[in-house]
Amino acid sequence: MAANVESMFYVRETPWHGLGTKVLSAPSSSDALRLAGLDWQVLQEPIYTETEERIEGYKANVRDSDRRVLGVVTDRYKVIQNEEAFAFTDELLGEGVRYETAGSLLGGRKVHPAGIPLWPFGL
Q1: Cα–Cα distances in angstroms (integers) from residue 12 to residues 22, 36, 40, 56, 101, in the given order
Q2: How far from 29 is each of 76, 90, 97, 104, 110, CA to CA, in Å?
Q3: In this structure, are residues 27 and 39 in contact, taking their beta carbons and an 8 Å threshold?
Q4: Contact between 51 and 88 (Cβ < 8 Å)
Q5: Run of H or E including 102
Q6: Contacts of residue 12, Cβ cutoff 8 Å, sequence gap at least 6
Q7: 49 close to 35: Cβ distance less than 8 angstroms
Q8: 91 versus 116: which is more confidently predicted?
Q9: CA 46 centroid distance within chain
Q10: Under a CB-based contact definition with an 8 Å cutoff, are residues 110 and 90 in contact?
Q11: By the 8 A CB rule, do 38 and 7 touch?
Q12: Pairing of strands 42-48, 54-63
């Protein structure tokens, strides 16, 4: 499908692609990670040739939950874990942030949190 959705949740209206799990109210970051299927870590592992020679300067980003390779990167690449991305959004938007949608695209290679501050607006 064109949306490339692997997992996600949403609040209120169904997205244009019709994919994901509908939830009744916007969750906090810890619940959003679980509901969106983003409660996994990225591990960086060495890469080897078929003859078991290590390929210097590159690593594979691997999802710990199912060992799926998310991509190949240089040694300089720094992983930002899903939990860290949500914590950044929490800090950016402030106390009372809740998430309208979050999910994983392209087999886990892209992750998106979409938070909204509740104060002073409320839900």
Answers
A1: 7, 15, 26, 48, 10
A2: 28, 7, 8, 15, 17
A3: no
A4: no
A5: strand 97-105
A6: 100
A7: no
A8: 91
A9: 22
A10: no
A11: yes
A12: antiparallel
Distance of CA 75 to the CA centre of its chain: 21
What pLDDT is stored for residue 42 in this prediction?
A: 97
Q: In this predicted structure, what is the pLDDT of residue 33?
A: 95
What is the per-residue pLDDT across 44-80, written as a single tens digit (0 to 9) for each? 999 999 999 999 999 999 999 999 999 999 999 999 9
The yes-or-no verdict on residue 123 having pLDDT over 70 is no
Backbone angles phi and psi of 89, in degrees to 5:
-65, -40
Determine the Cα angle at 16 with ends 10 and 21, to 5°: 30
Which pLDDT score is estimated for 121?
A: 41
Q: How many CA atoms lie within 13 A of 24 on its CB side?
A: 0
Enumerate the β-bridge partners of residue 98.
Answer: 116
What is the pLDDT, as a whole number, of residue 80? Answer: 93
Q: What is the DSSP letter of 109?
A: T
Flag whether pLDDT at 110 surpasses 70: yes
- Six-digit token pair at 96? 């009372």
CB neighbours of 57 closer than 8 A, spacing ≥ 6? Answer: 74, 75
